[in-house]
Amino acid sequence: MSQFADKPVLRLIAEAQAMGNDLLLGGVSRTRDVLLVRDEMFWVSAFNGMQFSIAFVRQWRWEGDNVGVTLMTCSPSDLRS
Predict the structure, then answer these.
(1) Can you count the helices (H) and strands (E) in the chain?
(2) Using an 8 Å Cβ cutoff, are 50 and 29 in contact?
(3) What residues contact 67, with CB distance under 8 A and at least 6 apart?
(4) Rounded to an integer, what distance in angstroms lies between the CA atom of residue 37 and that of residue 40?
(5) pTM for the full predicted model
(6) Higher confidence at residue 23 or residue 35?
(7) 23-26 and 61-63: which strand pairing?
(8) Greatest CA span in the chain, whole angstroms?
């Protein structure tokens, strides 16, 4: 059985999309710098692990017959912090 009820999750998806969010994550662990955005929705600067993710893609990159999007870029020095 899913930990997430359908109606509340669908409401959060609609709210996140209306707010212009890039990602909606559920069941995150080991968060850092957590700020309450609205009821049941938080902004975090870092996290480790999640149960699900939804990406709101607004711009696609075409490469030949493939399409893709970059959600995040980082350098090796970013990974050391």
Answers:
(1) 2, 6
(2) yes
(3) 60, 61
(4) 8
(5) 0.59
(6) 35
(7) unpaired
(8) 42
